[in-house]
Protein backbone atom coordinates (compact mmCIF):
# COMPACT_ATOMS: atom_id res chain seq x y z
CA UNK A 1 0.00 0.00 0.00
CA UNK A 2 2.68 2.42 1.08
CA UNK A 3 5.06 1.58 -1.78
CA UNK A 4 2.28 1.94 -4.33
CA UNK A 5 1.30 5.35 -2.89
CA UNK A 6 4.88 6.62 -3.03
CA UNK A 7 5.47 5.46 -6.60
CA UNK A 8 2.41 7.35 -7.76
CA UNK A 9 3.22 10.40 -5.66
CA UNK A 10 6.82 10.95 -6.77
CA UNK A 11 6.14 10.68 -10.46
CA UNK A 12 2.93 12.68 -10.16
CA UNK A 13 5.05 15.52 -8.76
CA UNK A 14 7.36 15.25 -11.75
CA UNK A 15 4.29 15.14 -14.02
CA UNK A 16 2.92 18.30 -12.40
CA UNK A 17 6.21 20.15 -12.94
CA UNK A 18 6.28 19.17 -16.62
CA UNK A 19 9.46 17.15 -16.22
CA UNK A 20 7.74 14.05 -17.66
CA UNK A 21 4.79 13.32 -19.89
CA UNK A 22 1.67 11.34 -18.95
CA UNK A 23 2.82 8.48 -21.20
CA UNK A 24 6.19 8.36 -19.42
CA UNK A 25 4.39 8.45 -16.08
CA UNK A 26 2.22 5.42 -16.94
CA UNK A 27 5.17 3.47 -18.39
CA UNK A 28 7.24 4.17 -15.27
CA UNK A 29 4.54 2.66 -13.06
CA UNK A 30 4.44 -0.48 -15.20
CA UNK A 31 8.21 -0.94 -15.45
CA UNK A 32 8.68 -0.32 -11.73
CA UNK A 33 6.17 -3.06 -10.90
CA UNK A 34 7.38 -5.56 -13.53
CA UNK A 35 11.12 -5.17 -12.94
CA UNK A 36 11.04 -4.33 -9.24
CA UNK A 37 13.14 -1.20 -9.76
CA UNK A 38 13.04 2.34 -8.45
CA UNK A 39 10.38 4.30 -10.38
CA UNK A 40 12.84 7.13 -10.98
CA UNK A 41 15.26 4.64 -12.55
CA UNK A 42 12.43 3.39 -14.72
CA UNK A 43 11.64 6.94 -15.87
CA UNK A 44 15.21 7.69 -16.94
CA UNK A 45 16.42 4.30 -18.20
CA UNK A 46 13.21 2.80 -19.63
CA UNK A 47 10.78 5.56 -20.43
CA UNK A 48 12.90 8.14 -22.24
CA UNK A 49 12.47 10.90 -19.65
CA UNK A 50 14.77 13.90 -19.99
CA UNK A 51 17.49 13.32 -17.40
CA UNK A 52 18.27 17.01 -16.91
CA UNK A 53 14.60 17.98 -16.42
CA UNK A 54 14.07 15.19 -13.90
CA UNK A 55 17.19 16.15 -11.92
CA UNK A 56 16.18 19.83 -11.91
CA UNK A 57 12.73 18.94 -10.61
CA UNK A 58 14.17 16.71 -7.89
CA UNK A 59 16.49 19.47 -6.75
CA UNK A 60 13.52 21.75 -6.09
CA UNK A 61 11.63 19.20 -3.97
CA UNK A 62 11.36 19.59 -0.20
CA UNK A 63 11.41 15.84 0.33
CA UNK A 64 11.26 15.98 4.12
CA UNK A 65 7.90 17.74 4.12
CA UNK A 66 6.60 15.50 1.34
CA UNK A 67 7.57 12.47 3.42
CA UNK A 68 5.69 13.91 6.40
CA UNK A 69 2.62 14.43 4.22
CA UNK A 70 2.95 10.84 3.00
CA UNK A 71 2.98 9.55 6.59
CA UNK A 72 -0.05 11.71 7.42
CA UNK A 73 -2.02 10.63 4.33
CA UNK A 74 -1.41 6.97 5.11
CA UNK A 75 -2.27 7.47 8.83
CA UNK A 76 1.13 6.13 9.90
CA UNK A 77 1.74 9.11 12.25
CA UNK A 78 -0.94 10.87 14.35
CA UNK A 79 -2.21 14.12 12.87
CA UNK A 80 -1.35 16.18 15.97
CA UNK A 81 2.33 15.20 15.74
CA UNK A 82 2.38 16.03 12.03
CA UNK A 83 0.87 19.45 12.78
CA UNK A 84 3.41 20.09 15.56
CA UNK A 85 6.36 19.26 13.32
CA UNK A 86 4.95 21.35 10.47
CA UNK A 87 4.47 24.30 12.82
CA UNK A 88 8.07 24.12 14.08
CA UNK A 89 9.59 22.98 10.81
CA UNK A 90 12.14 25.82 10.58
CA UNK A 91 13.76 24.80 13.89
CA UNK A 92 13.78 21.05 13.18
CA UNK A 93 17.13 19.29 12.67
CA UNK A 94 15.50 16.77 10.31
CA UNK A 95 11.95 15.50 9.89
CA UNK A 96 13.09 11.97 10.68
CA UNK A 97 14.79 12.83 13.97
CA UNK A 98 11.81 14.92 15.06
CA UNK A 99 9.53 11.93 14.50
CA UNK A 100 11.74 9.79 16.75
CA UNK A 101 12.05 12.52 19.41
CA UNK A 102 8.23 12.88 19.49
CA UNK A 103 7.93 9.13 20.04
CA UNK A 104 5.86 8.85 16.87
CA UNK A 105 8.03 6.14 15.35
CA UNK A 106 10.82 3.79 16.35
CA UNK A 107 13.99 3.63 14.22
CA UNK A 108 12.78 0.47 12.51
CA UNK A 109 9.33 1.93 11.87
CA UNK A 110 10.90 5.06 10.44
CA UNK A 111 13.08 2.98 8.11
CA UNK A 112 10.07 1.01 6.94
CA UNK A 113 8.08 4.20 6.33
CA UNK A 114 10.93 5.76 4.36
CA UNK A 115 11.25 2.61 2.25
CA UNK A 116 7.55 2.77 1.46
CA UNK A 117 7.76 6.45 0.61
CA UNK A 118 10.56 5.86 -1.93
CA UNK A 119 9.43 2.45 -3.11
CA UNK A 120 12.75 0.81 -2.20
CA UNK A 121 13.91 -1.98 0.11
CA UNK A 122 14.20 -1.74 3.89
CA UNK A 123 17.05 -3.87 5.26
CA UNK A 124 17.67 -5.09 8.82
CA UNK A 125 21.14 -6.52 8.10
CA UNK A 126 23.64 -5.47 5.43
CA UNK A 127 27.24 -6.09 4.42
CA UNK A 128 29.80 -3.56 3.21
CA UNK A 129 32.62 -4.19 0.75
CA UNK A 130 35.19 -1.92 2.41
CA UNK A 131 37.90 -2.41 -0.24
CA UNK A 132 35.52 -1.44 -3.05
CA UNK A 133 34.20 1.51 -1.05
CA UNK A 134 37.75 2.74 -0.45
CA UNK A 135 38.34 2.65 -4.18
CA UNK A 136 35.10 4.58 -4.77
CA UNK A 137 36.05 7.33 -2.29
CA UNK A 138 39.49 7.64 -3.80
CA UNK A 139 37.72 8.87 -6.92
CA UNK A 140 34.85 10.79 -5.33
CA UNK A 141 34.25 13.22 -2.49
CA UNK A 142 33.28 11.41 0.72
CA UNK A 143 31.80 14.62 2.14
CA UNK A 144 28.78 14.30 -0.18
CA UNK A 145 27.83 11.06 1.56
CA UNK A 146 28.93 11.88 5.10
CA UNK A 147 27.02 15.17 4.94
CA UNK A 148 23.70 13.40 4.48
CA UNK A 149 24.38 10.28 6.56
CA UNK A 150 24.49 7.90 3.59
CA UNK A 151 26.62 4.75 3.65
CA UNK A 152 28.11 3.22 0.51
CA UNK A 153 27.77 -0.56 0.58
CA UNK A 154 29.53 -1.60 -2.62
CA UNK A 155 31.07 -0.28 -5.82
CA UNK A 156 31.26 -2.49 -8.91
CA UNK A 157 30.63 -2.32 -12.63
CA UNK A 158 30.05 1.42 -12.66
CA UNK A 159 27.33 1.18 -10.02
CA UNK A 160 27.05 1.83 -6.29
CA UNK A 161 24.74 0.53 -3.60
CA UNK A 162 23.81 3.16 -1.04
CA UNK A 163 22.11 2.82 2.34
CA UNK A 164 20.14 5.88 3.48
CA UNK A 165 18.49 6.82 6.75
CA UNK A 166 16.50 9.95 5.85
CA UNK A 167 15.16 12.06 3.00
CA UNK A 168 18.20 14.37 2.97
CA UNK A 169 20.23 11.67 1.25
CA UNK A 170 17.99 10.35 -1.50
CA UNK A 171 17.85 13.27 -3.94
CA UNK A 172 21.37 14.49 -3.12
CA UNK A 173 22.95 11.09 -3.86
CA UNK A 174 20.79 10.50 -6.92
CA UNK A 175 21.78 13.85 -8.42
CA UNK A 176 25.45 13.17 -7.64
CA UNK A 177 25.23 9.72 -9.26
CA UNK A 178 23.55 11.06 -12.38
CA UNK A 179 26.16 13.78 -12.81
CA UNK A 180 29.05 11.36 -12.16
CA UNK A 181 27.65 8.68 -14.46
CA UNK A 182 27.04 6.01 -11.79
CA UNK A 183 24.07 3.70 -11.50
CA UNK A 184 22.78 3.74 -7.94
CA UNK A 185 20.75 1.19 -5.96
CA UNK A 186 19.16 2.52 -2.78
CA UNK A 187 18.01 0.75 0.36
CA UNK A 188 16.89 2.13 3.72
CA UNK A 189 18.50 1.16 7.05
CA UNK A 190 18.09 2.43 10.60
CA UNK A 191 20.17 5.21 12.14
CA UNK A 192 21.80 2.75 14.55
CA UNK A 193 22.78 0.33 11.81
CA UNK A 194 24.25 3.17 9.72
CA UNK A 195 26.28 4.42 12.69
CA UNK A 196 27.64 0.91 13.24
CA UNK A 197 28.67 0.58 9.61
CA UNK A 198 30.51 3.90 9.71
CA UNK A 199 32.36 2.86 12.86
CA UNK A 200 33.38 -0.43 11.27
CA UNK A 201 34.66 1.41 8.21
CA UNK A 202 36.71 3.75 10.39
CA UNK A 203 38.12 0.85 12.42
CA UNK A 204 38.98 -1.11 9.28
CA UNK A 205 40.88 1.85 7.86
CA UNK A 206 42.76 2.42 11.12
CA UNK A 207 43.68 -1.27 11.29
CA UNK A 208 45.07 -0.97 7.77
CA UNK A 209 47.06 2.07 8.84
CA UNK A 210 48.45 0.43 11.96
CA UNK A 211 49.49 -2.62 9.98
CA UNK A 212 51.16 -0.46 7.36
CA UNK A 213 53.11 1.60 9.87
CA UNK A 214 54.24 -1.56 11.71
CA UNK A 215 55.97 -2.68 8.52
CA UNK A 216 58.59 -0.04 9.31
CA UNK A 217 60.99 -0.09 12.22
CA UNK A 218 60.02 3.44 13.30
CA UNK A 219 56.76 5.26 13.86
CA UNK A 220 55.42 8.68 13.44
CA UNK A 221 55.25 11.86 11.49
CA UNK A 222 54.41 15.44 12.12
CA UNK A 223 51.50 17.16 10.47
CA UNK A 224 48.04 16.39 9.23
CA UNK A 225 46.84 16.61 5.65
CA UNK A 226 45.89 20.25 5.01
CA UNK A 227 42.60 21.08 3.36
CA UNK A 228 42.46 22.54 -0.14
CA UNK A 229 44.01 25.98 -0.20
CA UNK A 230 45.77 25.49 3.14
CA UNK A 231 49.53 25.88 3.36
CA UNK A 232 51.33 22.57 3.87
CA UNK A 233 53.15 23.01 7.16
CA UNK A 234 56.32 20.93 7.21
CA UNK A 235 58.79 19.98 9.90
CA UNK A 236 62.00 21.97 9.64
CA UNK A 237 64.02 18.94 10.61
CA UNK A 238 62.48 15.47 10.66
CA UNK A 239 64.22 13.34 13.29
CA UNK A 240 63.78 9.80 14.55
CA UNK A 241 63.23 11.10 18.08
CA UNK A 242 60.26 13.15 16.86
CA UNK A 243 58.49 10.23 15.21
CA UNK A 244 56.61 8.80 18.18
CA UNK A 245 53.81 11.07 19.32
CA UNK A 246 51.82 11.82 16.17
CA UNK A 247 48.27 10.50 16.36
CA UNK A 248 47.07 11.58 12.92
CA UNK A 249 47.39 8.41 10.87
CA UNK A 250 47.84 9.71 7.33
CA UNK A 251 50.68 11.99 8.33
CA UNK A 252 52.21 9.29 10.48
CA UNK A 253 52.35 7.03 7.46
CA UNK A 254 53.67 9.54 4.92
CA UNK A 255 56.42 10.95 7.13
CA UNK A 256 57.39 7.42 8.16
CA UNK A 257 57.71 6.53 4.49
CA UNK A 258 59.85 9.60 3.75
CA UNK A 259 62.08 9.13 6.80
CA UNK A 260 62.69 5.46 6.10
CA UNK A 261 63.34 6.01 2.41
CA UNK A 262 66.10 8.47 3.20
CA UNK A 263 67.46 6.27 5.99
CA UNK A 264 67.60 3.25 3.66
CA UNK A 265 69.29 5.40 0.98
CA UNK A 266 66.49 4.85 -1.54
CA UNK A 267 66.67 6.89 -4.72
CA UNK A 268 62.90 6.84 -5.34
CA UNK A 269 59.64 6.26 -3.48
CA UNK A 270 56.85 4.69 -5.54
CA UNK A 271 53.24 5.03 -4.37
CA UNK A 272 51.10 2.67 -6.43
CA UNK A 273 47.45 1.63 -6.35
CA UNK A 274 45.96 -1.61 -7.60
CA UNK A 275 42.39 -2.81 -7.20
CA UNK A 276 41.55 -0.73 -4.16
CA UNK A 277 44.77 -1.30 -2.17
CA UNK A 278 47.84 0.92 -2.04
CA UNK A 279 51.50 -0.12 -2.09
CA UNK A 280 54.77 1.63 -1.26
CA UNK A 281 57.98 0.62 -3.00
CA UNK A 282 61.53 1.91 -2.63
CA UNK A 283 64.14 1.86 -5.35
CA UNK A 284 67.26 0.91 -3.43
CA UNK A 285 70.53 0.56 -5.30
CA UNK A 286 68.66 0.56 -8.59
CA UNK A 287 66.25 -2.26 -7.70
CA UNK A 288 62.56 -1.74 -6.86
CA UNK A 289 61.61 -3.35 -3.52
CA UNK A 290 58.08 -3.57 -2.11
CA UNK A 291 58.07 -2.11 1.38
CA UNK A 292 54.36 -1.88 2.24
CA UNK A 293 51.10 -3.19 0.84
CA UNK A 294 47.43 -3.41 1.74
CA UNK A 295 47.05 0.33 2.42
CA UNK A 296 43.37 1.22 2.27
CA UNK A 297 42.30 3.42 -0.64
CA UNK A 298 41.16 6.20 1.71
CA UNK A 299 44.54 6.52 3.37
CA UNK A 300 46.42 6.12 0.10
CA UNK A 301 44.38 8.89 -1.50
CA UNK A 302 45.01 11.13 1.52
CA UNK A 303 48.75 10.44 1.26
CA UNK A 304 48.70 11.51 -2.39
CA UNK A 305 46.79 14.68 -1.47
CA UNK A 306 49.28 15.68 1.22
CA UNK A 307 52.18 14.92 -1.09
CA UNK A 308 50.63 17.20 -3.71
CA UNK A 309 50.34 20.06 -1.27
CA UNK A 310 53.92 19.59 -0.04
CA UNK A 311 55.07 19.78 -3.68
CA UNK A 312 52.89 22.79 -4.52
CA UNK A 313 50.53 20.86 -6.82
CA UNK A 314 46.77 21.17 -7.39
CA UNK A 315 45.02 18.68 -5.11
CA UNK A 316 41.75 19.12 -7.00
CA UNK A 317 43.30 17.91 -10.28
CA UNK A 318 43.08 14.13 -10.64
CA UNK A 319 43.06 13.64 -14.41
CA UNK A 320 46.33 15.22 -15.58
CA UNK A 321 49.99 14.53 -14.73
CA UNK A 322 51.63 16.99 -12.34
CA UNK A 323 55.24 17.62 -11.31
CA UNK A 324 56.61 19.51 -8.33
CA UNK A 325 59.25 19.47 -5.63
CA UNK A 326 59.85 20.23 -1.95
CA UNK A 327 62.80 20.38 0.42
CA UNK A 328 63.07 18.74 3.83
CA UNK A 329 65.82 18.29 6.38
CA UNK A 330 66.17 14.73 7.63
CA UNK A 331 68.32 14.48 10.78
CA UNK A 332 69.70 17.96 9.98
CA UNK A 333 70.76 16.96 6.45
CA UNK A 334 69.04 18.81 3.57
CA UNK A 335 67.21 16.57 1.11
CA UNK A 336 65.38 17.63 -2.06
CA UNK A 337 62.35 15.69 -3.27
CA UNK A 338 60.98 15.76 -6.82
CA UNK A 339 57.36 14.64 -7.09
CA UNK A 340 55.61 13.23 -10.16
CA UNK A 341 51.89 12.40 -9.93
CA UNK A 342 50.19 10.45 -12.71
CA UNK A 343 46.56 9.33 -13.15
CA UNK A 344 46.02 5.57 -13.68
CA UNK A 345 42.95 3.40 -14.16
CA UNK A 346 42.87 2.66 -10.41
CA UNK A 347 43.60 6.20 -9.20
CA UNK A 348 46.59 8.50 -8.95
CA UNK A 349 50.09 7.11 -8.49
CA UNK A 350 53.16 9.05 -7.46
CA UNK A 351 56.93 8.74 -7.66
CA UNK A 352 59.15 10.78 -5.37
CA UNK A 353 62.78 11.16 -6.45
CA UNK A 354 65.10 11.67 -3.48
CA UNK A 355 68.00 14.01 -4.23
CA UNK A 356 70.44 13.73 -1.38
CA UNK A 357 72.71 16.77 -1.49
CA UNK A 358 75.62 14.71 -0.16
CA UNK A 359 75.79 12.84 -3.47
CA UNK A 360 76.99 16.01 -5.18
CA UNK A 361 80.04 16.01 -2.92
CA UNK A 362 81.41 12.64 -4.05
CA UNK A 363 84.96 12.72 -5.36
CA UNK A 364 86.09 10.80 -8.44
CA UNK A 365 87.41 7.83 -6.47
CA UNK A 366 84.10 7.48 -4.62
CA UNK A 367 82.33 7.34 -7.96
CA UNK A 368 84.25 4.18 -8.83
CA UNK A 369 87.11 5.56 -10.91
CA UNK A 370 90.56 4.21 -10.14
CA UNK A 371 93.95 3.49 -11.70
CA UNK A 372 94.46 4.34 -15.34
CA UNK A 373 90.81 5.27 -15.82
CA UNK A 374 90.95 7.82 -13.03
CA UNK A 375 94.13 9.30 -14.48
CA UNK A 376 92.62 9.66 -17.98
CA UNK A 377 89.43 11.20 -16.63
CA UNK A 378 91.21 13.66 -14.33
CA UNK A 379 93.53 14.75 -17.16
CA UNK A 380 90.67 15.32 -19.63
CA UNK A 381 88.53 17.41 -17.28
CA UNK A 382 91.50 19.56 -16.28
CA UNK A 383 92.18 20.79 -19.80
CA UNK A 384 91.24 24.44 -20.44
CA UNK A 385 88.87 23.64 -23.28
CA UNK A 386 87.19 20.70 -24.99
CA UNK A 387 84.17 18.48 -24.36
CA UNK A 388 83.64 15.65 -21.89
CA UNK A 389 80.60 13.48 -22.61
CA UNK A 390 79.09 10.88 -20.25
CA UNK A 391 76.82 8.26 -21.82
CA UNK A 392 74.41 5.74 -20.34
CA UNK A 393 70.73 4.95 -19.81
CA UNK A 394 68.46 6.72 -17.34
CA UNK A 395 69.50 6.03 -13.77
CA UNK A 396 73.09 5.07 -14.57
CA UNK A 397 74.63 7.90 -12.53
CA UNK A 398 75.64 10.22 -15.36
CA UNK A 399 74.65 13.45 -13.61
CA UNK A 400 76.37 12.44 -10.38
CA UNK A 401 79.57 11.80 -12.34
CA UNK A 402 79.38 15.26 -13.90
CA UNK A 403 78.83 16.89 -10.51
CA UNK A 404 81.84 15.00 -9.15
CA UNK A 405 83.94 16.15 -12.11
CA UNK A 406 82.93 19.80 -11.75
CA UNK A 407 83.45 19.79 -8.00
CA UNK A 408 86.93 18.32 -8.41
CA UNK A 409 88.07 21.11 -10.75
CA UNK A 410 86.04 24.05 -9.48
CA UNK A 411 88.00 27.05 -8.32
CA UNK A 412 87.05 30.57 -7.41
CA UNK A 413 88.79 32.03 -10.46
CA UNK A 414 86.52 30.09 -12.85
CA UNK A 415 83.02 31.05 -13.94
CA UNK A 416 80.99 27.81 -14.06
CA UNK A 417 77.43 27.78 -15.41
CA UNK A 418 75.12 24.77 -15.67
CA UNK A 419 71.78 24.26 -17.38
CA UNK A 420 69.83 21.26 -16.08
CA UNK A 421 66.42 19.65 -16.23
CA UNK A 422 65.92 19.94 -13.33
CA UNK A 423 68.73 21.19 -11.07
CA UNK A 424 69.29 18.07 -8.99
CA UNK A 425 72.05 19.21 -6.62
CA UNK A 426 72.79 22.78 -5.58
CA UNK A 427 76.45 23.82 -5.46
CA UNK A 428 78.10 26.95 -4.10
CA UNK A 429 79.79 29.46 -6.44
CA UNK A 430 78.21 27.84 -9.50
CA UNK A 431 75.42 29.44 -11.53
CA UNK A 432 72.74 26.78 -12.05
CA UNK A 433 69.87 27.32 -14.50
CA UNK A 434 66.76 25.09 -14.58
CA UNK A 435 65.21 24.27 -17.94
CA UNK A 436 61.63 25.53 -18.24
CA UNK A 437 60.20 24.38 -21.54
CA UNK A 438 56.75 25.79 -20.75
CA UNK A 439 58.31 29.26 -20.66
CA UNK A 440 60.51 28.60 -23.67
CA UNK A 441 63.78 28.02 -21.81
CA UNK A 442 65.14 24.89 -23.48
CA UNK A 443 68.64 23.44 -23.37
CA UNK A 444 69.49 25.01 -26.72
CA UNK A 445 68.12 28.50 -25.88
CA UNK A 446 69.69 28.46 -22.45
CA UNK A 447 73.04 27.31 -23.79
CA UNK A 448 73.01 30.00 -26.46
CA UNK A 449 72.67 32.62 -23.71
CA UNK A 450 75.19 30.96 -21.41
CA UNK A 451 78.04 31.36 -23.92
CA UNK A 452 77.44 35.13 -23.76
CA UNK A 453 77.90 35.10 -19.96
CA UNK A 454 81.71 34.74 -20.19
CA UNK A 455 81.87 31.22 -18.70
CA UNK A 456 85.03 29.16 -18.30
CA UNK A 457 83.24 25.86 -17.83
CA UNK A 458 79.74 24.85 -18.88
CA UNK A 459 77.62 21.87 -17.94
CA UNK A 460 74.68 20.92 -20.17
CA UNK A 461 72.41 18.43 -18.42
CA UNK A 462 71.67 16.46 -21.60
CA UNK A 463 72.21 16.70 -25.34
CA UNK A 464 68.78 15.93 -26.78
CA UNK A 465 68.72 17.60 -30.18
CA UNK A 466 70.88 18.81 -33.03
CA UNK A 467 70.79 22.48 -32.02
CA UNK A 468 72.00 21.79 -28.48
CA UNK A 469 74.73 19.48 -29.82
CA UNK A 470 75.97 22.08 -32.27
CA UNK A 471 76.08 24.92 -29.72
CA UNK A 472 77.87 22.70 -27.19
CA UNK A 473 80.50 21.62 -29.73
CA UNK A 474 81.02 25.23 -30.87
CA UNK A 475 81.50 26.30 -27.24
CA UNK A 476 84.14 23.60 -26.79
CA UNK A 477 85.87 24.76 -29.97
CA UNK A 478 85.98 28.38 -28.80
CA UNK A 479 87.87 27.91 -25.53
CA UNK A 480 85.32 26.54 -23.05
CA UNK A 481 85.32 23.26 -21.15
CA UNK A 482 81.92 21.67 -21.76
CA UNK A 483 80.44 18.77 -19.80
CA UNK A 484 77.30 16.96 -20.90
CA UNK A 485 75.44 13.65 -21.00
CA UNK A 486 73.74 11.66 -23.72
CA UNK A 487 71.50 8.60 -23.79
CA UNK A 488 73.61 5.92 -25.45
CA UNK A 489 74.68 2.37 -24.62
CA UNK A 490 78.45 2.81 -24.97
CA UNK A 491 81.09 5.26 -26.15
CA UNK A 492 80.88 4.24 -29.80
CA UNK A 493 77.09 4.58 -29.81
CA UNK A 494 77.62 8.11 -28.45
CA UNK A 495 79.91 8.89 -31.36
CA UNK A 496 77.32 7.61 -33.87
CA UNK A 497 74.51 9.51 -32.15
CA UNK A 498 76.31 12.85 -32.33
CA UNK A 499 77.29 12.35 -35.97
CA UNK A 500 73.62 11.60 -36.71
CA UNK A 501 72.71 14.87 -34.97
CA UNK A 502 74.72 16.75 -37.58
CA UNK A 503 78.10 17.17 -35.91
CA UNK A 504 80.76 17.07 -38.61
CA UNK A 505 83.56 14.51 -38.11
CA UNK A 506 86.22 17.23 -38.06
CA UNK A 507 84.27 19.15 -35.40
CA UNK A 508 83.97 16.03 -33.31
CA UNK A 509 87.66 15.19 -33.58
CA UNK A 510 88.70 18.73 -32.70
CA UNK A 511 86.32 19.37 -29.81
CA UNK A 512 86.13 16.15 -27.77
CA UNK A 513 88.58 15.32 -24.98
CA UNK A 514 86.88 12.22 -23.62
CA UNK A 515 83.76 10.08 -23.90
CA UNK A 516 82.71 7.97 -20.92
CA UNK A 517 80.01 5.29 -20.78
CA UNK A 518 78.94 4.01 -17.39
CA UNK A 519 76.66 1.67 -15.48
CA UNK A 520 75.91 1.30 -11.79
CA UNK A 521 76.38 -2.04 -10.06
CA UNK A 522 75.41 -2.93 -6.52
CA UNK A 523 78.21 -3.60 -4.05
CA UNK A 524 78.19 -6.84 -2.09
CA UNK A 525 77.42 -6.49 1.58
CA UNK A 526 80.73 -6.88 3.43
CA UNK A 527 78.96 -8.54 6.36
CA UNK A 528 77.46 -11.48 4.50
CA UNK A 529 79.08 -12.02 1.11
CA UNK A 530 80.11 -15.63 0.50
CA UNK A 531 82.29 -17.47 -1.97
CA UNK A 532 80.46 -18.24 -5.21
CA UNK A 533 80.77 -21.93 -5.89
CA UNK A 534 78.90 -21.82 -9.17
CA UNK A 535 80.30 -23.05 -12.46
CA UNK A 536 80.48 -19.55 -13.94
CA UNK A 537 82.72 -18.35 -11.10
CA UNK A 538 85.37 -21.01 -11.64
CA UNK A 539 86.18 -20.59 -15.30
CA UNK A 540 86.33 -18.27 -18.28
CA UNK A 541 86.91 -14.63 -17.50
CA UNK A 542 86.86 -15.32 -13.74
CA UNK A 543 89.34 -18.21 -13.70
CA UNK A 544 91.78 -18.05 -10.79
CA UNK A 545 89.88 -15.32 -8.94
CA UNK A 546 88.03 -15.47 -5.62
CA UNK A 547 84.49 -14.68 -6.72
CA UNK A 548 81.78 -13.81 -4.20
CA UNK A 549 78.00 -13.77 -4.34
CA UNK A 550 75.20 -12.12 -2.32
CA UNK A 551 73.81 -13.92 0.73
CA UNK A 552 71.71 -11.51 2.80
CA UNK A 553 71.79 -10.49 6.46
CA UNK A 554 70.27 -8.00 8.89
CA UNK A 555 72.87 -5.37 7.95
CA UNK A 556 71.70 -5.22 4.33
CA UNK A 557 68.03 -6.01 4.91
CA UNK A 558 68.46 -9.58 3.61
CA UNK A 559 69.25 -8.23 0.14
CA UNK A 560 72.97 -9.08 0.01
CA UNK A 561 74.04 -5.71 -1.36
CA UNK A 562 74.74 -2.31 0.20
CA UNK A 563 75.41 0.74 -1.92
CA UNK A 564 76.47 1.06 -5.55
CA UNK A 565 79.56 1.86 -7.54
CA UNK A 566 80.05 2.68 -11.20
CA UNK A 567 81.86 0.80 -13.94
CA UNK A 568 83.28 2.91 -16.74
CA UNK A 569 84.20 2.57 -20.40
CA UNK A 570 86.53 5.46 -21.29
CA UNK A 571 87.41 6.51 -24.82
CA UNK A 572 90.36 8.90 -24.84
CA UNK A 573 90.56 10.98 -27.98
CA UNK A 574 94.13 10.28 -29.11
CA UNK A 575 95.55 11.13 -32.54
CA UNK A 576 94.74 7.71 -34.01
CA UNK A 577 91.06 7.82 -32.96
CA UNK A 578 90.71 11.42 -34.19
CA UNK A 579 92.14 10.48 -37.57
CA UNK A 580 89.75 7.53 -37.92
CA UNK A 581 86.77 9.76 -37.11
CA UNK A 582 87.81 12.39 -39.69
CA UNK A 583 88.29 9.65 -42.30
CA UNK A 584 84.78 8.34 -41.61
CA UNK A 585 85.83 4.88 -40.45
CA UNK A 586 83.08 2.59 -39.19
CA UNK A 587 82.16 2.71 -35.49
CA UNK A 588 82.99 -1.00 -35.10
CA UNK A 589 86.50 -0.45 -36.46
CA UNK A 590 86.99 2.56 -34.17
CA UNK A 591 85.85 0.45 -31.21
CA UNK A 592 88.24 -2.37 -32.13
CA UNK A 593 91.14 0.05 -32.43
CA UNK A 594 90.27 1.68 -29.08
CA UNK A 595 90.20 -1.72 -27.34
CA UNK A 596 93.55 -2.67 -28.90
CA UNK A 597 94.91 0.64 -27.61
CA UNK A 598 93.90 -0.24 -24.06
CA UNK A 599 90.28 0.88 -23.68
CA UNK A 600 88.41 -1.25 -21.15
CA UNK A 601 84.90 -2.12 -22.23
CA UNK A 602 82.04 -1.89 -19.74
CA UNK A 603 82.05 -5.66 -19.42
CA UNK A 604 85.76 -5.86 -18.78
CA UNK A 605 85.57 -3.10 -16.18
CA UNK A 606 82.67 -4.92 -14.51
CA UNK A 607 84.59 -8.22 -14.46
CA UNK A 608 87.42 -6.47 -12.62
CA UNK A 609 84.90 -5.36 -9.97
CA UNK A 610 83.88 -9.02 -9.54
CA UNK A 611 87.50 -10.16 -9.26
CA UNK A 612 88.06 -7.46 -6.62
CA UNK A 613 85.14 -8.88 -4.59
CA UNK A 614 83.22 -5.60 -5.00
CA UNK A 615 80.21 -7.12 -6.75
CA UNK A 616 78.87 -10.43 -8.07
CA UNK A 617 78.58 -12.17 -11.44
CA UNK A 618 74.80 -12.01 -11.19
CA UNK A 619 74.94 -8.24 -10.75
CA UNK A 620 77.23 -7.47 -13.69
CA UNK A 621 75.18 -9.80 -15.91
CA UNK A 622 72.18 -7.62 -15.04
CA UNK A 623 73.74 -4.39 -16.34
CA UNK A 624 76.45 -5.32 -18.88
CA UNK A 625 76.99 -7.63 -21.83
CA UNK A 626 79.47 -8.00 -24.65
UniProtKB/TrEMBL annotation:
Belongs to the GSP E family. GO terms for molecular function: ATP binding; ATP hydrolysis activity. GO terms for cellular component: plasma membrane. Residues 451-465 form the Bacterial type II secretion system protein E domain. Keywords: ATP-binding, Nucleotide-binding. Transmembrane segments: none annotated. This is Bacterial type II secretion system protein E domain-containing protein. It holds the Pfam family T2SSE.
